[in-house]
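Bumping with the actual sequence this time:
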Amino acid sequence: MTEETRQEGQETAGEQTAVITTDEAAASSLGPKKLRQSVEIKDAGPCRKHVKVSVERDDIDERMSEHFSKLVVDSYVPGFRPGKTPRRLIEKRYRKDVTDQVKSEVLLASLEQLGKDHDIAPLSPPNLQIDKIVIPTAGPLVYEFDVEVRPQFDLPPYKGMKLKRPVKTMTDEDIAELRRRYLNPYGQIVPKETGVVEIGDILVGSVEIKDGEQLIGKIDESNFRVERQLAFKDGLARKFGETVKGAKIGDSRVVDIELSSQAAGGLGGRQVKGTFTVKDIKTVRLPELTEEFFESTPDLGVSNAAQLEEVLRILLERNIEHTQRRSARMQVMEQISAAATWQLPQDLLMRQARKAVSRRIMEMRGDGMTDAQIEQQIRLMQQDILKSTEMALKEHFVLQKIAEEEKIEVNDNDIEDEIYRLAEQSGESPRKVRARIEKEDMLDALAAEMIERQALDLILKSAEYEEVPLEPQEQEAPMATHESQAVPGEMSNPETSAAETPPQS
């Protein structure tokens, strides 16, 4: 046992007795007695530590004795009056139960003390097999585990950064395009009179998907909304609108489809061909913006055309602001990552994929993006979930470290205020917003996003900006989604795969 460990938890019996007998209230105010334990922490690979803990036998025996003393008073053993059962018999009768209970108590106290005394910064609960941990008949309780931890790195200067801010002036065409997409769900699907596919139409047809000459997927007659991009559950056709535009009934168009990393059949990441055969063309007749229409659609949250235009302008402004913040995040990461050489192991990325998606969702909700926009961005993120997760995790680690340096924290009141802000943006009640966040298990993601937002705001307030035009490729390309898979079969789950993958070292 090291000298540091002795000083960490050791007190003399006389000191303990003096506190207890003199003033029980004072003793309780000091909190639980610290365990006398030694801790050994070693690197076990990228973002991984191996921890070995040894809890002194005296602490275990003391807790065992306390439990047996209580059982002597409280337990009922046939043939003995309450409180008169010989202690030896109590110890023999209840040893297994007491040992199990003490093991749980000691492990819980030990882990809590470990977290307070050592800056491990775990990313997930430790890989601790409690059923295999045994209190020995003699000697200390020793247990060990591996745990995923945040990478250690030094922050370069992050104040006064030189950043480019993409700017754009809203045009009538931007408003008209957003109005079309915004009102599309309220429109009436009607036959297309001209018979030529255009953006905004509905292509009725079938699809054959091939990898080379091999047929790997087929979608029978279905409706495909025509936007610039089309996202399947497991793939993305980035030039869908451009490719099918101008097609007539009976025509076939071959579209490139990038399969996501989770696609079935071991085809993740492949580029395949989808042949769309047009069987019919329909269009959406948008509703007339009459008083009757607004009265029949209270979920729009507006009561006339002027209010609708104002909402559309606000949405466009939010979209531009979100694009600017994402651009700033990426530039900040590029500058900081130049000084960071740490790598994130693949099994860590697999396990953290869902949390990364959750944080991204909360970021977009915080920026006031609609559910449809969020769904589109998540589809894009899931195209290459490990690469997306790596980028998101690096952002998370950097911004969290800046938050620690700047002492940025959030409390329950801050979270409640943020829920009210989200409710105001979405037009929902705060209770409904909170219920949805709790149902989706995203309260932790919300808190993390709030901290990261404040850290990013701190960087951006001190930055020096050069305004540049917002390039078309930086803007959100309208996307239609389809609930089919390009490749049928069970898609891979990163978290399941991580559970089956041995840790990298």
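The tokens above came from a reply further down the thread. The chain has 16 helices and 13 strands.
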